[in-house]
Amino acid sequence: MNSSKTPPGEETMIRCPRLGHQISFSYCRSENKGLPCFKSLDCWFPHFAVEAYFQEKLSPEQWEKAFQRPKNAKLLSLVELIQEAKRRREENL
Fold it and tell me: Which terminus in the chain has less CB density within 10 A, N or C?
């Protein structure tokens, strides 16, 4: 693991287990309605000190909301992702 608290640049891409394709850290950082994806800690820890990074950047309330919340069932999570994608698409039209 890289112990740096500096996130990798946009050129560093990893496979997202939720989306199934390559993404950069910038997506994970605000994927959850402006908060980090709950899987960010698991996915990015081999690349940099992601937990330390988020502890510096997030308030205790934001940390709890992003990482301490109960996990949704996979189907519900997928439905939420679809709804969010539809909302973003409508905003861009």
Answer: C
Phi/psi-derived region of residue 20, left when phi > 0, alpha when psi is between -120 and 50, beta in every other case: left
8 A C-beta contact, residue 12 and residue 23: no
pTM beyond cutoff 0.70 = no
Contact 56, 17 (CB under 8 A): no
pLDDT for 69 equals 65
Q: Count CB atoms within 10 A of the CB of residue 59.
A: 8
- 81, 39 Cβ separation under 8 angstroms: no
